[in-house]
Amino acid sequence: MRAEISGKNTGVPLSLLAALALATMAGPLSIDTYLPAFPLMADDLGTTEPGIQLTLTLFMAGMALGQFFIGPMSDSMGRRRLLLGSQLIAAAAAFVCAVSPDIWVMWGGRLVQGIAGGAGVVLARAVVADLVVGKTAARAFALMMLINGIAPIMAPLVGAVLLVPFGWRSIFVFMGLFNVFAMIVLALVVKESLPPENRSAGGLRGLFGGIAEVVKIRGFLGYVIAFWFSFGAMFAYISGSPFVMQGQLGLGVGTYSMLFAVSSAMIVLGSAVSARMVNTIDPRRLLAFGILLMLTASVLLLVDALLNPTVWVIVPLLMLALFSMGFIMGNATALATGLARRRAGAASAMLGAGQFVVAGAISPMVGLGADAAATMGTVMTCSVLVALAGYVWGVKRENYTS
Known about the structure:
The chain has 402 residues and is mainly α. The protein is built from 15 helices and no strands. Helix 4 (80-98) packs antiparallel against helix 8 (169-189), helix 6 (134-148) runs antiparallel to helix 11 and helix 12 runs antiparallel to helix 13 (311-339). The longest helix is centred in the N-terminal third of the chain and has 29 residues, at 49-77. The protein starts with 13 loop residues before the first helix and ends in a 5-residue tail after the last helix. The relative contact order is 0.15. This is Bcr/CflA family efflux MFS transporter.
């Protein structure tokens, strides 16, 4: 049953949000924990650096595929069974990666791991969208993001702690055990959120019909575009920051890693502030604030890069941009899924699959220019401008007046 919009109503129990956040944590944990192990993996599996990098590409592709197909599928099959099954499959795939004798098995394991991880993300969002709407949903998504934000902060540390004494295979054992733990918690806490009478028709028609249906909803696509391209701007930072910080500004690996962790914490802080403010401020206003804040940071970053880039200016601006993500992701998700209540799985699939497609397209652009800082600032600014245009279009299409 849907909770009514209420400033004081938390809508979803914190225990449920924490359990669902475990399902969404699998993505960052499965990426950030094993990045330091790339050289050792290449030697052990007898492959090249591009061969190991392909394990990350296949995982990201799997995340997009899992969200695109499993989201609409859950509109007809329900959420709980698929959610538990996704964690079981992700665990099995991680264990396969841990014992992989060659790069071919590793590639297959990572693809399956990504598909199952994507399913966990899309289903967790759909469960929240089934239960709450409006401000309540925005608060719930912000709190879930806050919990989920712990993963990219802790993952590199966990990977480093395991890598030296136990080797790279122990990292994948950790991933598998985490999925088993998540499955147990989800089984104990999560009940089916989509009753049979509210489910859509199955089959291919139901699968693709759900996507077609949500795209036609007035305002939906605008909020989705805002979500996609804000994430794209953040991914431009993720892919470009090593070249800017280490190559152009001369920071050491340790200093850069520390700054990356602090930057990730800024997203958590932004989510916490947004969750607090949504009780009294409309999610549309908070989303607009987040996008404009990110645009301001991106433009100033570009100006500084064109003049004389310095670490004392670039780092605070990047942190400001990531702080704004805490306002953008949760509110954009709540607004988009709130418009597509009967197709929450398909709506969540559009949000999730598209963000990885956009991020994958934007990431190579950061490496095109000779000046890393200027190129990163340009790509971030252009991406946020598209997000702003999507937001404006979404509000107008929804016929919302402040």
